[in-house]
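Q: What does the assembly look like in three dimensions?
Context provided by user:
Components: two
Sequences:
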Amino acid sequence: MIISYKWLQEFLKISLTAEQLKEKLTFSGIEVESTTTSGDFLKQFIVAKVTFCQKHPDSDHLSITEVFDGKETHKVVCGAHNVAEGQTIAYAHVGTDFGDFKLKKAKIRGAESAGMICSERELQLSDEHEGILVLPSDAPIGTNLADFYQIADTVYEVEITPNRPDLLGMLGIARDLSAQLNIPLQKHPLYPVENNLSMPTADDFRVVIAEPDLCSRYYAVRMSNIKIAPSPIWLKDKLKIADIKPINNVVDITNYIMYVLGHPLHAFDERCIDGRQIIVRKSMPNESFPALDHQTYNLTGAELVIADTQKPVALAGVIGGLNSHIQDSTTDIVIEAACFDSSITRRTSHNLKIFTDSSYRFERGMAEQTCVDIAINAAKLVAELAGGKVVQVIDVYPGKKPLRVVKLRPVRVKKLLSLNIDNHKMINYLQNLGCKFLGANEEELSFEVPANRKDLTREIDLIEEILRLHGFDKVDKPVAAPQMMNSDIFYARRKIKQYLVHQGFQEAVNITFTDQTNLDMLNLLAVDHRRQTVRIINPQGESFSVLRSTLIPQLLKNVALNLNHSNENVKLFEMNKVFTRREEKLPFERWRLTGVLTGKSKPIDWSEKSGNICYHDVKGIVEGLLDIFEVEINKLNLTTEPFYIQNGGANLFVKSQYVGSIGKLDQRVLSKFDIPNEVLLFDLDLDALFTYADFSQKEYTHISKYPIVSRDLSFVVSEEFTLFDIVKWIKETNPKTIKSVIPFDEFKGKQIAEGSRSLSINISLNSESKTLTDEQIKSIMQRIIDRLKEKFKIEMR
Amino acid sequence: MNKMLSLLYAPRFPAGENKKTVDEQLQNILKNATSEIEVAKAFHELNDLKSRYIGKKSELNGFMQQMGKLSATERPVFGKKVNDVKAAIESLLEAANERIKENIYTQSIATSSFDFTMPGRPVLMGNLHPLTIIQNQIEDIFLGMGFQIAEGYDVEDDFHNFDALNHPKDHPARNLADTFYIGKDTLLRTHTSTVQIRTMEKHKPPIKIIAPGRCYRNDKFDLTHSPVFHQTEGLVVDEGISFKDLSDTMDIFLKKLFGSEVKSRFRPHFFPFTEPSAEIDVSCVACGGNGCPTCKNSGWIEILGAGMVDPNVFDILGIDSERYTGYAFGCGIDRLAMLKYKLPDIRLLYENDVRFLRQF
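A: Here is the predicted structure of the complete assembly.
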């Protein structure tokens, strides 16, 4: 449904801006889908006066003029033949935007010209360009043309929910807004309806309803001596807003009234009604019907039709017939204002795929009571615009029912909404919507619901209306509890545990108490910060005398216990707090994540031999863990931790900060824990790690649709260079195109010189924007090789 | 053969072959190719036949080479004949190729033996510790009800562990025997209730938290005691919080944790920091309430301590105890784990025997 800001003003004096009205509509349940403003173009032009006009000395068709726009006088060269001093005209100042160009200051044959006097075509009013537009002499100088023509408007396309057919007319929307804004509806030519027509009931023309269940009312007004003609401008303009094509005065009137009052109506040429009878009946199988859309439909017997004694003349509520429509020669008409069953209208419309403004409304349900209003309004407008007079009024009304009465318990309103709204206010809300307050007793209020509000049948429906008008925003929001939880870290801890479980780890939980000698067993130096232990004054014996500062000793004891029970393959981790002394009253509590691994790297498998867990297994696990949080190790060096074997472990750095270590434990340390087997370890400072973790919301990154190219490089390089540095160096060659650099072979010995190794590296290349050509690939690879030669003195194999 | 063709061919081919017409020669080639291709059994045989019959050195290609000698009008007629034969041989080769492929496939199915009972390649998942599993469950239940998770320190001071929780100075819980001390007034927290205080110091109501964590009491390890154990504390403070909210929340919590058929009851109790205070029992999860060793034949098991926050606590923290009300509760995670998993000995939880850990 399309509604216009300006048109609405006819019904009620809205003081809101177009933008505010849009908000109001949306929060009253009428969702605005789009907004367009008209008149922006014409706002640029100013009503101005030609104060001086003289032929251009160097031209036979140009004139030099002076134009006063109410503020200033401009010199304008004008090419129109009809320009003359004293005229009121439309002036475009320098800078006016015509869409395809912007008006500039110009020099025309030596004469300065600042601005333009416009023709109708230049103003986009018509195609007229024979001369300039001359405005009435009393047009107010200085006003813009949009205001002068009063065409500035905002048009909203709104979505009407299926339960509210009453909003399918301008008046319905105006009524709802009047309730929303608590401002009265204005008197309007179509509302309230004043029936001052003479209502002859001559009985020479009959209406018969053969299907009273499907047509609850048929109100017909016959008029004669009509003169069909084009509609006046105001009516055409209204239909233009509604996006309805003007046809002729009678048809336009029916459409206009439908658009204002929401209830469709139709007009027949009385000449075409055979037998002077209108019959509302079911179609007959294979009956053919020529519709106004110039299609002929083969009916099935399921449709409801309006027929005369010979033929169907309309599909009830859907579309009129080509055999009975208003033509230029029409003089006598029958106006139909009826109420058809919504289900059959919907079925007919959908089965025949005819969707009209009429079917749209009837399938949502129209009210019997409004038939009279629309018919009388139509008859009056026809008389006014097309002449003619009413010769007969027929009202067949088989579905007559009293208006619905709905009761409302204020207690119930409070219970449902938790809002204190006094009775007076509730009554006012509902009255504004057109409900009639019938009276109250101790518990309940009674309302008569208007005919076109078929959605208001129960108490709960009234409560909904009360809340809608009172405002959803009146319902208090709870005071939100402050954010006191660090969800990122909370879920990160869980994620890590889950990750390690997926890698085959068991989670260990050890008690907080430990013993100073455990630190000796780890070979910790006297100055090691983990020696700053927190002692308990009243411990349960020496072995429970300090709070642990590392998780390693207990995990090693756990390994020993399991090895004792012949569990050769053990992977355990513990995530818990460690404690160290510090200046402050309370000690330093930090979260640590430590894992121990021993035995085979994979479970026993008949089809594949598995090696012992090695450094690279642990490194892979830790790298995978860091990957979850997009943390990248940017530096590695040989570990300084005293419990790893020499050259058997590494310290890990993220953003150059130490976050932990990985490696193979020293046999001499292990033997202190009675462990004869090899054990590998990772030991991470979880709090440090989380400071570098990326917890931000993941966002989609574009996936290239161009092929990935894979190339291998094999070369010999001195062992003094780490793979980490080599990979980094390769990536830096072209970070955008090089997607991955993965080593797949390392070889030392025979053909390779002492102190060197052979490396094979797979490089994959991919562009976001193109398929890489052979030349491009070659050139990138060559650059990589050149850079490697330069920095690491590699020799290609 | 029509007159024109015979005229064409007769004088132009080598003497020996003159006896046969070109048509006959072509047909011969096709016939030989057909019989040989039809019996071919392997791809390499097909390759041989292909080069022999339609390859560069083939007889058929020889005919093609001679095309150049023909006139412009003869060439297309002759070329078509040769090409037709070539095409026929190509399609024979294609069909034979399919036939051999199919044969190899059928044979491979027929001859392969497959012991589908051999074990799959093992994928070994680890396990979360049972204490973690229970703690996660508790957290998820309360997170679902809009609670947040708060954390505190394991090492606390007297104020947060006792004073602020309305423990009188001479309260027996302060006995050296129950509490591990680190310093003069620093200690290992004896309950997670300390987090209540830490939270209320830092945040204004509304507050809705649970605080899982480690607690310490000077109990010797035995079947049911550990000097280190785990608790979850809960605290809700807002305007209009009533005993009914506590009761509802506990009911939902216990039903989510133990199943919808579980019953619960409140028993009056004493906690220094709640008033009224209660202990909450659930119908025995082992026997369903009929009486068994787990519930010492009572049919009920004590699960939670709870109550309305004592106004004194609010007063100590400067929270308006007239405006705000609240409830608090606490339960032991170890105890819940023992109940749910029917553990006979609390020490199993801290030994980290893989045979135990694998079970959950």
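Follow-up: The radius of gyration of chain A is 44 Å.
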